[in-house]
Amino acid sequence: MNMRAFTLLLVLTLSACTTVDDFRKMSATERARRVCERKNDIQQLSAEQRQLAGAIQSSQMDLGRGYKIHKQCHPVRVYGPVTTTCKKVGNLTECTEFRPEAYETRCIETPVSISPDLERQNIQAWSSAQIQVTQRLQEAWKNCTHFVERLSPEEAFQQYQ
Question: Quick one: 36 exposed, middle or buried, by C-beta within 10 A (0-12, 13-18, 19+)?
Fold first, then answer.
């Protein structure tokens, strides 16, 4: 299961456990945090922020090492140990062999040259974009929390669902 599907499943499972009674017990700030962290615009901006941070970190690592690493992966069939099972039928003994098989991912890493100047330009562009995304994310959080904190627990729960 990929990470995005797992996260979605976890959110759906946890949200099914939260009730309006839980919202009544929460502070206005906690209700706002619960509601706002589920808003699409905040989730998208957070994902964009993580993606930019990852790109910057990856490019900085490439600069430090002097090259990129291209990773090519493919599934490979692997076999487990042979298991022999025998049973006696009358005067005969019948044996069967079983060898489990599974797949594992094997990767080949290949060094690839980089242009240090281009990497630095990319880092600069991503850093500028990251600042803008952070500002938009902070504004979205501020607007959302300001709105939700003024709602009753029941109204906040409706926003949460």
Answer: buried
Residue with tokens 């080949």: 108
Angle among Cα 23, 29, 31 to the nearest 5 degrees reads 25
Q: What is the pTM of this model?
A: 0.66
Q: Map tokens 């949460």 to a residue.
A: 160
pLDDT (tens digit per residue) in 92-129: 889 999 999 999 999 999 999 999 999 999 999 999 99
